[in-house]
Predict the 3D structure of the following.
Amino acid sequence: MADRLKNKVAVVFGAGCTQAGVSNGAAAAIAYAREGAKVVIVDVETGAARRTVEMILEEGGNAADFTADVTSRTQVQAAIDGAMATFGRLDILHNNVGINKPGGPVEMDEAVWDAVMATNIKSLFLTCKAAIPAMQKGGGGSIVNISSITSIAWHGRPTIAYSSSKAAVNHFTRVLAAQYGPDNIRCNAIVAGTIDTPRASSQLQRVIRADAAEIRNRRSEAVPLRRLGTPWELANAAVFLASDEASYVSGVVMAVDGGLTCTMSH
């Protein structure tokens, strides 16, 4: 293990790992642990959270897990309280939870809009409400929010709720960075491009109705680097932003997308 995050405690919301493969959140949690952080895995699925913890423990890392629905203030607070009780401090908050539903405002049901907004942006409000006081008490910290290329550009499919919620994540990040900078709390967002995860593949198969290989080829061809990104490449960016190497980086909305947003209409 390296020591870029030695003696730090990270809480990662949405870090569960399915049997199909490593998610973006799980990769970030594992990467934090590999750099010496003690990591708290929070997921709505208890089994998924436990899988990520087991992967960290197998590598000799230190981790604990809690189950929480990020749309519930009491459950989010309980997870943060559990992290503090387990490890005694909080240095890194990583917000990875997000859901996506297709459709524009005409065809989308109001309840679907509300669910996406609650999961994708209200959750950040709740996790920050719970975590920032702990960071202030400890002398500072780093918040990493996961956004999407759909927050800044049209990507060819109507996803009005997801795109709007992720655009909100970007500005939520900037406002937080400005407000809590005096407390030595940094806040940055990663704009994720086309990342090759089991969840993304299954979702796109339902929408596009093509086999996985064809979808992967189509997505790869749209990227200047001509390939999809991996959860580990997002995790590498998160480690940098969470570490002291980024001690003067705050309020940044950083694309990790293989250059894709350079080719999209803004």
In short: The radius of gyration is 18 Å.
